UniProtKB/TrEMBL annotation:
Protein name: Permease
Keywords, ordered alphabetically: Membrane, Transmembrane, Transmembrane helix
Pfam families the UniProt entry points to: EmrE (PF13536)
TM helices/strands, residue ranges: 31-50, 70-89, 95-116, 132-152, 158-177, 198-218, 230-249, 261-282
Keyword Transmembrane in annotation: yes
Lineage: superkingdom: Bacteria
UniProt cross-references to InterPro entries, sorted A to Z: EmrE (IPR032713)
Protein's organism: Bacillus atrophaeus (strain 1942)
Length: 323
């Protein structure tokens, strides 16, 4: 339950991304700067935190041991996640981007067979391919349906260009983010803490963000003061607070696919928080608050119930077999 609450809190801070990215685009800011500044601003904060915890040297040693691994999965987990998200904000409202992003809830569950877990079998501990948790998959679809209802209510105002350039990039991001996170979690979960993993991925992806910033400077000039300040807020809120909270939540349940799927499903809260943010800051309308909130709460309750029940049942079965 603690991991679920941390995940929901993370979704609140993640929602800042969708609202402020859209605000920056509406004010004429370039998505190149919106994307790159977030990660550039994250570096000094994360460096300070990790250095204060005296854990920078172990991180750098691991990065030197496996540089290609860090470059590859940081690019997938951070670059292929955030660059498409900010690009999409240039063509569609925050609620559309946040709603489409909910695909990641189902994607996280479907990725299970690509990973392994250690199980005690008659021949001893063995790595076994994870199975898709069907209960989590069904409840994930319920939450995704709620997000889809919001999209349908605005379908008449969506052009083909808006759908292509604001939906397709987010679908790519929805696959990239959980994949990069889980790959890092499998290799370094329990070995490097959350702050170390986030800093490592930020540093490994930094060359790309600097290239993107350089291109933004060449094509659009320097960012305005307003965009710089908003990007700083996104960096602190979404890049540091939300990312660390989400990585921490997934780390708490990394050995339980069912609970991991439940934590990833908490990202559905971003739709509600993004809609509220747009309504308050950008004068956006909030559609069907009661019905969508009901779907969200129902999905969360089902996910939490399934997560709390499957593990005790499995434990009881193992205990019966050992008697």
């Amino acid at each position: 339950m603690k991991a679920i609450l941390v995940g929901i809190l993370a979704s609140l801070f993640f929602a800042v991304t969708f609202v402020l990215n859209r605000a920056m685009e509406l004010s004429g800011g370039s998505w190149y700067w919106s994307a790159s500044l977030r990660f550039i601003f994250m570096v000094p904060f994360l460096l300070f935190i990790v250095m204060m915890r005296r854990k920078l040297t172990p991180l750098l040693k691991e990065m030197r041991k496996h540089p290609l691994f860090w470059l590859k999965w940081s690019f997938v987990g951070f670059v292929l996640f955030y660059a498409p998200i900010t690009f999409a904000a240039a063509f569609g409202p925050g609620w559309l981007v946040a709603g489409t992003w909910q695909i990641t809830i189902v994607v996280g569950v479907l990725l299970s067979p690509f990973f392994y877990e250690t199980k005690d079998l008659p021949g001893g501990p063995q790595l076994v391919r994870q199975k898709i948790p069907l209960a989590a998959l069904m409840t994930s679809f319920i939450i995704l349906l709620g997000a889809g209802i919001i999209q349908l209510q605005h379908a008449e105002s969506l052009s083909a260009k808006m759908l292509l350039f604001s939906v397709l990039p987010v679908v790519i991001a929805a696959f990239a983010y959980p994949l990069g996170n889980r790959k890092m979690l499998v290799k370094y979960g329990g070995k490097l803490d959350t702050f170390q993993r986030v800093l490592g991925m930020t540093l490994a992806s930094l060359p790309f963000w600097l290239l993107l910033a350089a291109y933004g400077w060449w094509s659009d000039g320097l960012p305005s003061m307003g965009q710089t300040v908003q990007s700083f807020i996104v960096a602190v809120s979404s890049g540091i607070i939300a990312t660390v909270l989400f990585f921490w939540a997934t780390d708490m349940v990394r050995d339980h696919p069912q609970k991991l799927a439940a934590v990833e499903a908490t990202q559905s809260g971003e739709v509600i928080f993004a809609l509220l943010g747009e309504m308050i800051l950008l004068s956006g309308a909030f559609p069907s608050l009661l019905s969508f909130s009901g779907l969200f709460i129902t999905g969360m309750i089902l996910h939490t119930f399934a997560s709390r029940q499957r593990i005790p049942k499995a434990a009881a079965k193992e205990k019966a077999q050992s008697i």
